[in-house]
Design a protein that fits this description.
The chain is an alpha+beta fold and about 200 residues long. It is built from 5 helices and 7 strands. The protein has a 7-stranded mixed β-sheet, with helices on both faces.
């Protein structure tokens, strides 16, 4: 009788251990899939969310440009950027023009480095990319070199505001495109986010 109970206990214990290992394996598998998943495309976010993202960026960039506040904002697309950046402060906030303006204000501790936007959220602030080794004109500074650098190794779109001139450029596919009329920024950015081809020329 005691032997039967012992055998039953061992069987139950073995089953419990197997169940624990199975749960652990499944949890880690799901975690890995989540970690490695590709960011949603801009088109997947829905019309209302797309418009909100673009117009929050428009209002922020227009203010930054007018006041000559330097900024670099990178929008992640299909290429995951975590392995292509260093440092940074996790923000994880909905995109908001006031927050972006506050981040890049010269007295903000986060104003150096880039903001990364993933889907419809501000993911990181004060993060850094490797700068491009391409020879650029003297009017381009560290932000422009970082924007070009990340555009050379990913499909991300990066917006740069010059603190010297207030000029706004978009970097994508290792090229710059200057925004000559800030009021056209929203339309241009929408087209670029929806584009699947490299059509920005220096």
């Amino acid at each position: 009788m005691n032997l039967d109970i012992a055998i039953l206990a061992i069987g139950v214990l073995t089953l419990l251990l197997a169940l624990i290992f199975a749960v652990f394996f499944i949890f880690n598998h799901i975690k890995t899939l989540h970690k490695n998943k590709v960011s949603r495309s801009f088109l997947d976010l829905g019309i209302s969310t797309q418009r909100k993202i673009v117009y929050e960026l428009f209002f922020a960039v227009k203010h930054l440009s007018k006041n000559k506040i330097g900024a670099i904002i990178t929008l992640q697309r299909n290429t995951l950027l975590d392995s292509l950046r260093t440092d940074g402060v996790k923000i994880d906030s909905m995109i908001n023009s006031s927050l972006l303006i506050a981040i890049f204000h010269k007295n903000s501790p986060l104003h150096d480095g880039a903001v990364i936007i993933v889907d419809d959220r501000i993911s990181y602030a004060s993060t850094y990319f490797s700068v491009s080794e391409t020879t650029l004109e003297d009017r381009y500074g560290a932000r422009h070199r970082a924007a070009l650098g990340i555009s050379e190794v990913s499909d991300a779109i990066t917006i740069v505001v010059s603190e010297q001139s207030g000029d706004v450029i978009i970097a994508r596919d290792a090229n710059f495109f200057k925004i000559t009329n800030i009021d056209s920024f929203a339309e241009i950015l929408t087209k670029e986010l929806n584009s699947t081809q490299a059509n920005i020329n220096k």
